[in-house]
């Protein structure tokens, strides 16, 4: 491919009206990275030759198939229309020795990952490598060596200094501490061993274009605030975090109302014991310290990977299902001013057909941040099949989830698993490399994406619903089920209403509803009102608001859990850019640690009734939705609407760089076939990209139960 002419995208600027892009990538050294992030995928630079490759991948675990099946499996994978192969490199599988025997690593026969990747390279596939240290992959001890998980210096600790156990098939095991210096040092040795095998296969010399730091790093799903981590290294990091935040012990005393002499005297909280808002800062600080510990660990692991030879290519991490209920925070784990951290945040998807709301919320939150940063919205694991000891996910579930996520803006995916293996059923390719009928869907999808250049399209979302970080922290602090992760309830359809402690916190205003429930109810009401109005919207993580509010016409901010300084600054910037901002239920009076500050309404921000004084949204959900809808109608005059009926069916439209509609998705999350009538500006006829049928939107389009139609727009005339 000829060298591309330098464009606005090359220098990190969008020219598309209302879609400003913030360039946050920082050089790691003076050498231009061989692989760069692009909204449409990965930009590969090899001398004067540059190309953008869409992120469409499939997972193949080389150590789980016969060496003779390497080429057949990879050949079958390529026929599915993907551009990349993805694989873990499992520490436990390759390591031998330990205790009194020197550690060594095996790389021969079916464990020869370098040979596997050379086969991929010969077939024209790029590679995504995921060396852990934690990989899960349904391996015993999540792929960690026994000598690591049973080393007390590596283990996460409970408040009573017991090892923290994870009950995962086939046996429970003690999970490592992300703060443990011993564990991080052992991880660096493992990465060095992987680097010896694979550094010569990093692009442009070889196929490796993306490397993952750890895997689903939510404290090994033992992420209760008072569950862990009380490892000495974690407690020491917590105290440094307090010193960084409060600067002086006198300031911390005022915040906690406790006469500590030094930061080293501050004990981490071990239970929820708040009775008033003044008790919350120390509990919320402990929850935030977990976020810092994870971010530090990712930064250390990322540095170790680069030292091992994986430099010049992006580092990424995959957030698990129900990520919003964990201490994983995108804004913390991304590269900081010193260049420490990861480059790309991605999501895992394992949903059932019809799980429309959850997919929309998660995907829009990812997409709006990726769009602003110029990153590709990518699913590091797009479920195809499932482990035999989990509730089964069939082909219909997988197809609905992938197409629904694409409908809300996902641009890349990794089919997990593309090739079947032990402890996994339902993949589109068997372990001998034989294609199953399920593979035909992915082949057609790849062809459809190429036909419409889907990775280059975008979806306009003029409304942003902000989820402040303090809301998520307080929901974790007030979780009522101890070691049973709040994220587990989210995965099975529950939420804050089912998991937050019912007792409220006395804020001195007579309101006793738990603040996370109050804030969550407002967001649900806004979501319902926007759906009814046909206005596209995105959820925004409060930590990303400094860039994810760019281009917004209307911003709704729940304030029941307080707002941190960074979010308040982002809101002020959005106001200056012309966005209409609404606080609900009231103008904020507490900061992110729930300390009081004088209420102040920035110029242009309003309460929920559109006046300069706040209105509290009370009553049932339907009443809230009516109030929010009334306010939105006043604020969104002239905003294009995309509507579909009957509810809860939905439609989304994707535009090219000139703003011309190119793709429409029609979503039926119900359990019966529906004739979906959609109204989309500039669109009257569409052609299904899978079966070729053409339909008039005004006549309605038949959509099967629990399914999504992926359609190309037929230009007028």
Task: Write a brief structural summary.
30% of the residues lie in helices and 19% in strands.
Task: Write up this protein.
- With about 725 residues, the protein is an alpha/beta fold.
- It folds into 3 domains: about 55-220 and about 295-455, TIM Barrel (Alpha-Beta Barrel), CATH 3.20.20; about 465-480 and about 515-635, 3-Layer(aba) Sandwich (Rossmann fold), CATH 3.40.50; about 645-715, Immunoglobulin-like (Sandwich), CATH 2.60.40.
- About 30% of the residues lie in helices and about 20% in strands.
- It has 19 helices and 28 strands.
- The strands form 7 sheets. An 8-stranded parallel barrel has the order 4-5-8-11-12-13-14-15, surrounded by 4 helices. Strands 17-16-18-19-20 form a 5-stranded parallel β-sheet, sandwiched between helices.
- Helix 10 (about 355-375) links the parallel strand 13 and strand 14.
- The longest helix has 28 residues, at about 280-305.
- The radius of gyration is 25 Å and the shape is globular.
- The two termini are about 35 Å apart.
Task: Please give a handful of descriptors for the protein shown.
5-stranded parallel β-sheet; 8-stranded parallel β-barrel; single chain; 19 helices; disordered N terminus; Immunoglobulin-like; 717 residues; 3 domains; Rossmann fold; alpha/beta; TIM Barrel
């Amino acid at each position: 491919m000829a060298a591309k002419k330098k464009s606005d995208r090359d220098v990190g600027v969008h020219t598309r009206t209302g879609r400003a892009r913030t360039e946050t990538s920082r050089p790691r050294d003076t050498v231009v990275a061989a692989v760069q992030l692009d909204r449409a995928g990965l930009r590969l630079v090899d001398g004067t030759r540059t190309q953008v490759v869409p992120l469409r991948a499939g997972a193949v675990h080389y150590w789980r198939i016969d060496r003779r099946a390497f080429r057949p499996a990879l050949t079958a994978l390529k026929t599915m229309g993907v551009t990349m192969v993805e694989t873990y490199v499992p520490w436990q599988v390759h390591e031998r020795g330990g205790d009194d025997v020197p550690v060594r690593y095996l790389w021969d026969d079916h464990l020869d990952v370098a040979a596997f990747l050379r086969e991929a390279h010969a077939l024209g596939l790029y590679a995504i490598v995921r060396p852990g240290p934690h990989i899960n992959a349904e391996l015993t001890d999540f792929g960690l060596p026994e000598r690591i998980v049973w080393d007390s210096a590596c283990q996460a600790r409970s408040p009573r200094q017991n090892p923290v156990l994870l009950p995962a098939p086939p046996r429970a095991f003690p999970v490592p501490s992300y703060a443990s210096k011993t564990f991080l040092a052992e991880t660096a040795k493992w990465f060095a061993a992987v680097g010896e095998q694979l550094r010569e296969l990093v692009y442009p010399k070889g196929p490796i274009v993306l490397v993952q730091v750890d895997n689903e790093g939510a404290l090994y799903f033992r992420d209760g605030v008072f569950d862990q981590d009380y490892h000495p290294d974690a407690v020491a990091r917590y105290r440094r975090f307090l010193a960084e935040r409060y600067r002086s012990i006198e300031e911390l005393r005022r915040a906690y109302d406790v006469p500590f002499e030094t930061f080293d005297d501050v004990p981490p909280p071990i239970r929820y014991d708040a009775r008033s808002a003044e008790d919350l800062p120390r509990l919320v600080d402990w929850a935030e310290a977990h976020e810092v510990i994870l971010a530090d660990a990712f930064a250390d692991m990322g540095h170790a990977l680069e030292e091992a030879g994986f430099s010049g290519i992006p580092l990424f991490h995959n957030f698990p299902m129900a990520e919003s209920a964990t201490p994983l925070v995108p804004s913390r784990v991304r590269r900081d001013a010193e260049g420490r951290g990861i480059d790309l945040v991605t999501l895992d998807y394992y949903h059932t057909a019809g799980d429309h709301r959850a997919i929309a919320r998660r995907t829009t939150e990812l997409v709006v941040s990726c769009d602003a940063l110029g990153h590709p919205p990518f699913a590091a694991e797009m479920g195809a099949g499932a482990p035999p000891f989990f509730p089964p996910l069939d082909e219909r579930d997988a197809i609905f989830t992938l197409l629904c996520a694409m409908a809300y803006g996902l641009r890349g995916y990794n089919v997990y698993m593309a090739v079947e293996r032990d402890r996994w059923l339902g993949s589109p390719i068997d372990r001998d490399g034989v294609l199953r009928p399920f593979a035909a869907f992915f082949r057609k999808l790849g062809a459809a994406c190429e036909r419409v250049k889907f990775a280059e399209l975008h979806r306009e979302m003029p409304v942003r619903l902000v989820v402040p970080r303090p809301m998520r922290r307080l929901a974790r602090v007030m979780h009522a089920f101890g070691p049973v992760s709040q994220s587990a309830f989210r995965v099975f359809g529950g939420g804050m209403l089912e998991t937050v402690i019912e007792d409220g916190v006395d804020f001195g205003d007579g309101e006793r509803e738990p603040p996370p429930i109050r804030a969550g109810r407002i967001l649900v009401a806004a979501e319902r009102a926007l759906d009814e109005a046909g206005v596209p919207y995105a959820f925004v993580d409060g930590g990303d608001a400094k860039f994810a509010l760019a281009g917004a016409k209307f911003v709704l901010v729940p304030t029941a859990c307080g707002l941190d300084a960074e979010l308040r600054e982002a809101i002020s910037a959005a106001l200056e850019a012309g966005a209409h901002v609404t606080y609900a239920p009231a103008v904020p009076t507490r900061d992110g640690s729930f300390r009081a500050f004088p209420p102040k309404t920035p110029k242009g921000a309003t309460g929920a009734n559109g006046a300069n004084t706040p209105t509290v949204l009370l009553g049932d959900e339907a009443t809230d939705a009516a109030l929010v809808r009334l306010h939105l109608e006043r604020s969104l005059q002239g905003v294009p609407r995309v509507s579909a009926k009957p509810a809860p069916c939905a439609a989304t439209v994707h535009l090219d760089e000139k703003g011309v509609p190119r793709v429409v998705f029609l979503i039926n999350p119900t359990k019966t076939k529906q004739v979906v009538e959609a109204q989309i500006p500039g669109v009257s006829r569409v052609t299904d990209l899978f079966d070729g049928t053409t339909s008039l939107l005004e006549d309605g389009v038949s959509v099967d139960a629990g399914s999504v139609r992926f359609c190309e727009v037929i230009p007028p005339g």
